[in-house]
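Take a record.
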Amino acid sequence: MYILYAVCGLLTILGAILLTGRGANLLSGYNTMSEAERARYDAPKICRVTGVFLLVFAFLLFGLAMEWLPIYAFLAAAFLAVPALLLYTNTRCYRDPASVGTPQGQEADSVLGTAPSMNGTIPEAERQKRRRDLLVIIGVAGLLLVLFAFVTLMLLKGSQPPAYAIVDGTLEITSQYGTRIPLADIRKIERLDVMPALLAKKNGFDMDAVRKGLFRTADGDATLFVNLDKPPFLRLTTTSGVFILNDETPEKTDALYHALIAGQP
């Protein structure tokens, strides 16, 4: 948690500096360009736009740290804002064509192979380079959006509550990391009002209050299908290991508890 607060503070400081229109050398990519390449861009504008982005991102990260911003909203804002920033800085932050007669503009024109022009028109070589830059940015933005869709799908799938059904003497758990537990293998069924302390995730899903998969607890390893914010919990000690689970409501969890007790051979 403290690491998130420190990152928020750092982003806020950097954002405030860039918001003044200074600090272009802090920007990755821009600081590695040649002087002629830099002359193509409006550096103060890029700084201000990036400064606003960092301040907004710091605010969202602070909301995530304080737990009043859902992780879905944070991820959506992050994955959508980055392509938007790339597109804007590479389409709206070019140098004014009317400045090509300045010393920096003359250097850029010599590299691009175009003659200085004071009428504000954009040389053809510059137009082509901007088109290529835009295509690259669109490709990067597309990949980020695909990644965002994939991550969102996985998170939505993992956060869905498990479905429990007792069929032919077997407890079927339909969920991510779902499994089937023969009732004959259950040696002990306990109803817990308090979840055992969790020590580490070994192989599973862990987001907000949802825990699925294999975890190390204070009482030993257990396979979990729980929402920590919705007690009670059921602990099943079986011949193949320990399972801890609960349903969407206390009433459903209690109903599952009684069904398991009644189904014992």
Summary: The mean pLDDT is 82. The longest strand covers residues 198-207. The helical segments are 2-19, 35-38, 43-66, 71-89, 103-112, 124-159, 250-262.
